[in-house]
Please model this.
Amino acid sequence: MRIDSSNEELVAMFEWACDRALRWAHPAGSRGPLDVDERQPSGTGEGVYLPSYWAGYAHRSGFYLRDFVHQLPGAHLLGLDEANLAMLRCFAASATEEHGHRPVWAFNFDGSYLAIDYRGPGAFVREAPAVYELVEAGAVAYRWTGDRAYVDDPVLWDYYRRAVELPPTAMGAGIFDGTATYNEQDGEPLAVAGDGVAARYAAFLAMAELSRARGLDGDDYERRALDLRRHYASEWKGVRGFTRDGTPVTGWGMESSWFPALKRLTADDDLLDHIDAQTGGPGRPHNVEAWTYLPDTFFRHGRPEAAWRWMREIYASREGEHVAGGRNGDYPEVSFTLVSQVVEGLLGVRPHGGAIATEPSLPAGVDWLAVSGIPVGGGSVAVRHEGDTTTLTNLSEHLTYTWTACGLTRRVPPGATLTARRTGTA
Model:
């Protein structure tokens, strides 16, 4: 992909992020160490790697479920579709009956379990939101690529249908027992948390979409999503979780606080104001990984100024020290998510195989933005936005796209350039 913009910082950010993210990728057949971590920095041997990329700590030789699902859109944009599918299948295939149909948390690049996070079938890291995010990741990958494997692969489909039936409740107190939340810092005895419920809501909607792509009725999954949304609106007012005895937990809880907005379970402006105030003040997360969710959260609710502020802060912090050692910029999620936030956030590209919608959202200080070579389906497009005008060029040789912008839908044949304006089209 190539970028051009009135904002030089944005150009530098995107180019840095693309270059840095691709450095984390492994072509199929690469050889390298296994089970490298802080306890055994030389690892335990060597293996032949799957097509894959780093998703987790740079000092551990593997990819993690939570990181992977958040990095997947950026990986697609960078041409790493083979890796996305291989990694998704690893997680899905690990959700065996022996594992309670829950996916293993981390893998070596050869597809074996990463030892530091796996002690045995009854003792491996489990966090409830990840179970559902993997279903949503399959739908996201299908939208971007149109690859039928995300719909038809029996391993993936078996995982999807089982995962959405699992309850978002904690199985125990610690991460090796199975917690209800991504927030590993507070140690609260939550039985159910806002991030788990929000992730399940998004998974229901994803399952409706995947079902329809298979020619099945997705209406029941959509109804279950709407029922969950209604339940959340009536029972979770100001609450971010419940303990085992049903006691509501309020106050700031990082992921359990912002995931309901991130997953669009709620569009409550007061909650978004609360997230903005806390993350910029007393509730500021210490880990850059947590920061990477904030641009997505604000973009999805029409707050580009807050989203761009966090993108700039994440980029500016790349040379800073990471809480686990090393530099923030060496945490892979930083670069992968900045790539997707430029395309999905600022340019507002919404793919669905051969269909594209654009809803650009440029903040003050970015007068215009253009990205060329955005891969969608079996082809690619260029999108440029300035003021009230968006232009789309079909760079494909054989694929015709259906483009929705400014309330109108039109066909864009190979090589064609069309323009849409908020006040009409030209």
Remarks:
- The chain has a mean pLDDT of 96.
- The chain has 14 helices and 21 strands.
- Residues 169 and 329 are 34 Å apart (CA to CA).
